[in-house]
Amino acid sequence: AVELAVGGSETGKGRGGVLGGSRVMKRKCVVFGAGGGAGAIVELVAALNAVEPRSLLSGFLDDGHTMHETSLFDQLVLGPTDLARSITGDTMFIIGVANYRRQFDRADIAKRLDLNRERYATLVHPLASVSDHCTIGNGVLVFQNAVVGDGAVIADHVYLSPFAFVGHHAELGQ
Predict the structure, then answer these.
(1) Parallel/antiparallel/unpaired status of strands 75-79 and 71-72
(2) If DSSP codes are grouped into helix, strand and coil, which group holds residue 146?
(3) By CB atoms within 10 Å of each CB, which of 5, 90, 94, 127 scores lowest?
(4) What mean pLDDT do residues 89-118 have?
(5) What is the mean pLDDT of the chain?
(6) pLDDT category, 26, cuts 50, 70, 90?
(7) pLDDT digit string, tens, across residues 121-170
(8) 114: Cβ–Cβ under 8 A, 6 or more apart, which residues?
(9) Whole-angstrom Cα distance, residue 144 to residue 109?
């Protein structure tokens, strides 16, 4: 077993209960995926930490064997994604995989790993406009300048790119 952490996450209204929200403590996070989206995740965490230190990246998990034990953005690629099951404590996980051609990859990864959904961090960039009257699931990533309207429901593991717009009472998800 690998010990890395502190934390917990929950589905909440608006920004409450998310790493990007106001009711948080500093947490260790491990990112699934060390590909093209890894830099965006690192920058998202850095933007959150610039406002208030909240999370500490503890490394990446990736199934590309050639990347194991290499460094990416000053973080170690720890091994394959299945290693997540042996990471003990309250380490939060971030699914950093995103591909508009394969929209369900993020949910498929979560299903394959079968971790408690509370272990997935939800990150909301400080420059995103997210209504306090919406519901955001676990494992959601909301990047800069994205907008989420009132009454919107965002299911687990949704990835909202920069400048994404989710209108009032819209529902996105699995």
Answers:
(1) antiparallel
(2) coil
(3) 127
(4) 85
(5) 83
(6) confident
(7) 999 999 999 999 999 999 999 999 999 999 999 999 999 999 999 999 99
(8) none
(9) 24
Cα R_g (the chain), whole angstroms: 15
Nearest-angstrom CA–CA distance, 58 and 77:
9
d(CA 171, CA 98): 19
Half-sphere exposure of 65 (CA within 13 A, CB side): 0
Contact 128, 148 (CB under 8 A): yes
Question: What's CA 54's distance to the chain center, in Å?
Answer: 13
- Residues belonging to the chain: 174
What angle is formed at CA 11 by the lines to CA 164 and CA 95, rounded to 5 degrees? Answer: 60
For the chain, give percent helix, strand, coil, nearest 5: 20, 30, 50
For 113, phi and psi rounded to 5 degrees? -75, -30
The number of beta carbons lying within 10 Å of the beta carbon of residue 60 is 28
Residue 10, pLDDT above cutoff 70: no
The per-residue pLDDT for 35 is 87
In eight-state DSSP terms, residue 120 is: B
Determine whether 59 is exposed, middle or buried from the number of CB atoms within 10 Å of its CB (0-12, 13-18, 19+): buried
